[in-house]
Write a structure and sequence with these properties.
5-stranded mixed beta sheet, 490 residues, UPF0066_cons_site, binds S-adenosylmethionine, alpha+beta, 20% strand, single chain, 7-stranded antiparallel beta sheet, 20 strands, YaeB-like fold, TrmO-like_N
Length: 490
């Protein structure tokens, strides 16, 4: 990691003159969660990417200085088949880095460092996707690693193909949308599980019901049985896998497992690093065989050519079948008008900074709201509150009902800062006016029961800085009287 003395202009200094690590400036002082015990004692011979040698093994014990009960921090991880490991290239030897590097695969030609997986980079952080063999107490056992023994590990995150693999994005989003539609038109049933499992293909230009039926037909039998499994298997096309391998840096063919005896830990670890797990492990269809084979039944069918799509990774069902359903998103006519105005092209009305069109902005707002951005707290205890967030230059006001989110206002972020900032000592006339307009509209749409005196409508939880307004998504809520549940608006 870069020396702290090289921090950016915002870094504060302690009285002793040292730069003070500050999260907000990105000067993170890291503390390894553990030090990897790996079958590779040195850099030489260590594969350049984890995919190169599936039998390379390692073990990471979470340090007690990080968590008193390390096993608690690993709870649930065993349900994933793969994990991302973030680590420090601690044996780089120097902290120098260059803008252009020569990856072995280019055989001497130079290319920008950020186009490569070179260990020599401004922050010497590595990222490896490893197979999770088992979790035992406060330790994780991995295979398919490209890290050397003693590597300081900064973090572990589960690999979720739906989030981490672009070829899954559109399928995931289509499923998400279909599920919201099905929820709305009451057709959500067991097919839903299949949709969520990522196994079906979305049929374009069909009604929701037809698509769901089609998926159900196509994935009946064996797959329906599998959908009841605890976890979901995520697929990758063989050619994608090939391409992924091809894009990696030059593979090291010297996958020597030789290492001095003293480099190894206790006998159990030694046998794991040398041979693999000593008992069968079933991770939702990925069977790790005893006696050293890290091969899964899916790997076997892939190699035997019996699978047209290769199931590569496994996640627990709560990831794909989350109890929180996607929401239907709608815009009031007023919000539609706001959106059009925002991108009117009128010189006095600045349009978007990041979005290319009002349609893109609309889709982004829909996507954000469909995934229900509220915290659990807000979802459970502040159902009756207006919800605000800012994306690009659009400051969005909405409310949530049973299975839907409705956008009631979209304002220019800079304007909305004015209109919704905490009224201290008193709101600007414009702010007051805007606030009561929104309340009024929501009240009208929610019906007479809501017309009782608005509750603390001006209580804002969080103000917003103008810089955040244009670069990040921010949200907060104001109190309003409870909204009737299950309302359907035209
Ligand atoms: C090309 S890097 C890729 C690492 C990771 N998959 C990534 O993309 O960030 C892999 C190489 O880094 C080297 N390496 C592994 N662990 C290291 C460590 N702790 N310090 C320095 N170099 C290391 C090994 O030579 C290995 O072949």
């Amino acid at each position: 990691m870069r020396g702290l003395e090289k921090q950016g202009p915002c870094a504060a200094a302690t009285p002793c003159g040292c730069a003070q690590p500050a999260l907000e400036t990105g000067n993170l002082l890291t503390e390894p969660i553990g030090y990897l015990e790996s079958c590779f004692p040195a850099k030489i011979g260590t594969p350049r990417q984890p995919s190169i040698c599936s039998h390379s093994r390692a073990c990471l014990k979470i340090r007690k200085s990080i968590f008193n009960n390390p096993e608690h921090s690993l709870m649930g991880l065993e349900e994933f088949s793969h994990v991302w490991i973030l680590f420090v290239f601690h044996k780089n030897g120097h902290l120098n880095y260059k803008a252009k590097v020569q990856p072995p695969r280019l055989n001497g030609a130079k290319i920008g460092v950020f186009s490569t997986r070179s260990p020599h980079r401004p922050n010497a952080i590595g990222l490896t996707l490893a197979k999770l063999e088992k979790v035992e107490g406060g330790a994780v056992y991995l295979s398919g690693v490209d890290m050397i023994d003693g590597t300081p590990v900064l973090d572990i995150k589960p690999y979720i193909a739906d989030y981490d693999s672009p070829q899954n994005f559109s399928v995931h989003n289509d499923h998400h949308k279909l599920r919201a539609e099905a929820q709305a038109d009451g057709t959500a049933n067991s097919c839903d599980q299949l949709l969520l499992s990522g196994r079906g293909k979305v049929q374009p230009r069909q009604s929701t019901k037809e698509r769901l039926k089609c998926l159900e037909d196509r994935t009946s039998g064996e797959n329906s049985q599998k959908s009841r499994d605890m976890s979901e298997i995520q697929h990758t096309l063989p050619e994608d896998r090939e391409r992924a391998l091809d894009l990696a840096l030059e593979p090291s063919r010297g996958e020597s497992m030789d290492m001095p005896e003293n480099q190894l830990g206790p006998p159990e670890l030694k046998s794991f690093l040398e041979e693999g797990t000593d008992r069968p492990r079933k991770v939702e269809g990925a069977l790790v065989l005893p006696g050293g084979s890290a091969e899964t039944q899916w790997d076997a069918s892939y190699r035997a050519g019996t699978a047209d799509r290769v199931p590569c990774s496994v996640v627990p069902s709560w990831v794909t079948e989350a109890p929180v359903a996607p929401l239907q998103v709608r815009f009031t006519p007023h919000a539609e008008m706001d959106l059009r105005k925002l991108n009117s092209g009128d010189a006095s009305q600045p349009s978007f900074k990041y979005f290319h069109s009002a349609e893109e902005a609309r889709r982004a707002i829909e996507a954000v709201l469909s995934a229900d951005p509220r915290s659990v707290y807000r979802r459970k205890l502040c159902e009756d509150r207006l919800f605000f967030f800012t994306v690009d230059t659009a400051h969005v006001t909405c409310w949530f009902g049973d299975g839907f989110a409705e956008v009631v206002r979209i304002k220019l972020a800079s304007e909305s800062v004015q209109t919704v900032l905490p009224p201290s000592p008193s709101p600007s006339p414009k702010g007051r006016e805007e606030q009561s307009l929104v309340e009024e509209e929501v009240q009208q749409r929610a019906g007479p029961s809501r017309r009782a005196a608005p509750r603390a409508a001006s209580m804002l939880v969080k103000p917003q800085s103008s810089s955040l307004a244009t670069s990040a998504l921010t949200h907060w809520a104001i109190s309003l009287p409870p909204l009737p549940q299950g309302l359907v608006f035209s």
